[in-house]
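# step 3/5: fold
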Amino acid sequence: MAEQNPYLQSPDTDFTPAARMKEEEAARQAELLREAIEHHNFRYYVKNDPVISDHAFDLLFRRLQELEETFPGLRSDTSPTRKVGAPPVDELKKVEHTAPLLSLSSALDRSEVENFDRFVRRQAGDAAVTYVVEPKMDGLSVEVVYRGGVFQWGATRGDGTTGEDISENLKTVRPLPLRLREHPRLPELVAVRGEVLMPREGFQRLNRTRVERGESPFANPRNAAAGIVRQLDSRNVANKPLDIFFYDVLSDRLEGLSSHWEVLGLLEEWGLKTNPYNRKARSLEEVYRYHQELERQREEFPYEIDGVVIKLDDLQLRSRLGTRQRSPRWAMAWKFPPKKEVTTIRDIVVSVGRTGILTPVALLDPVEVGGVTVSRATLHNEDEVKRKDVRVGDRVRVIRAGDVIPEVLERVEEKRQRGRAFAMPGNCPACGTPVTREGAYVVCPAGLSCPAQRIGRITHYASREAMDIETLGEKNVRQLVERGLVENLADLYRLRPEQIEELEGFAEKAAGKLYRAVQGAKDPPLDRFLYALGIRHVGEHVARVLARHFGSMARLQEAGEDELREIDEIGPEIARSVHGFFREERNRRILEELQQQGVRPREAAGAQSRLLEGKTVVFTGDLENYTRDQARELVERLGGRATSSVSGNTDYLVAGRSPGSKLDRARERGVQVLDEEGFERLIGKT
């Protein structure tokens, strides 16, 4: 049809009014307009070589909108006009990725890159080694899935296995095609990985608008992109200056491809935007030059980059090198040195974190570091302050560690009188409790009753990995604490719907939803409850170890430090922290109040049965009787290991409803596949 399409070159935009057209005639014109608009988007975003003016493009787009409004039957989910957004949703659903979205190991200096290169060449033997080098874009990683060339869904990276469904929001991102270009090598189902980011110019424009409206500006372009893409109302996303680049196909089934460079070319042929700064490097010296070149040009890029990505080009050799649990062995990120600026320390204050650690913080004369205004920076701990010998009034160099967290790097030597040396307080600045020292850290032991720890601890308690109380994030917790409605964890369960309605952003329906979510969080598994309490050094894994060993909250509370130290994986530092938490009278009182409010953690069965000793299990699809976390915990309790991806070490794949591509990979590798009933037979439940 492209040969007869009158809107591809020098389009005539003198249209007959839509109201005077027949629907059949309008349908033909709408089809031509969609094809032309997709073509012009491809020329503009992917090829960077537009063939018509912006004004002409706008006229074509408005004409298509007019036709679809006049003839509602012509509307299509893949029409370019869908980029204006859809009605809001109540929440972002979770979606399982078609393949794991791995992270990258990072290097900060040349020697680490040399070690990586030596490893690759050792594995390659006599084979030639070529790399593909790409800018490391500082954005939001996403997966986008097409079926039959048509956009199906898109999701955030999440934990690498499961992300949030942001399909409607992604549809509004102009450079993302809703329909791929026809191509003989386009699979029926293809999942691609990309990076959503916000250009610098758009970021400044957006922040200027926010400030003029009295809203807080975004801290940096990455935060802006991430926050916008995860909004519930895609109409608020449609007018934001977002861009997207694609850099991988999440499949090993593309026939006839031998190199990553070919994959990048294929992405572009499908109509997906790739980074024009991508290069091939046939030697380590070429990698060095590329890194230096991009570091010099860093501030001239239209968007934020914080390093370069080095990828082995040969796909077969990649397969031989394999992956670690979370990152590939055939790729790495080489970060740029952190950006530095000089400013003055005006004061050093002490903040109290969620776990009670006291952290000295430097209050600075505001200074722009890498496009972000910095007015405070961490000094980590008292020993670090002494080592750097920084004091109030000193001139210091400030960096953004990892281009994110502001940090005082060093003092700038000056010949003048200096202020007094800093010393940590003897009492917690928030609650007055005498502090204790644990190694390099000074800690407030007051725990749940310390007001400075309260917001962080309650937010942690409600988090998805802990008690999973929906909509109780930091913003809403802060409101509850600042209004005096919640002073400790037990107060959450005393909240009434009418009190919640008084909070900003809460009407009757939302207040009722939060109330029910809180009241529904009263019988968690013991390990999740232990993790939710925020005991120092007790992460999710240690919480499971403790729950399996003691079985009940009562037994754990009465355990001595020596008994705790005898447990595998519990060292002296963890034992001391857990024992101290339960000896603290204020913590015991709040635990009693939680019990009075009906919070009773379920006892753990322990790991006496070792039915799955040495076995590795992978889950895919929706299970009827278990959440994904419950299924994984069950496998671990029975001595097995639950992983997120199918490999040569996988013993069983458990497939629920709507299984993903893991099922195909398991069958290809000869892994035993079980349905949910078969899984329960395996563990002796039926």
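# step 4/5: annotate
Residues 23-46 form the longest helix (24 residues).
# step 5/5: archive (pending)
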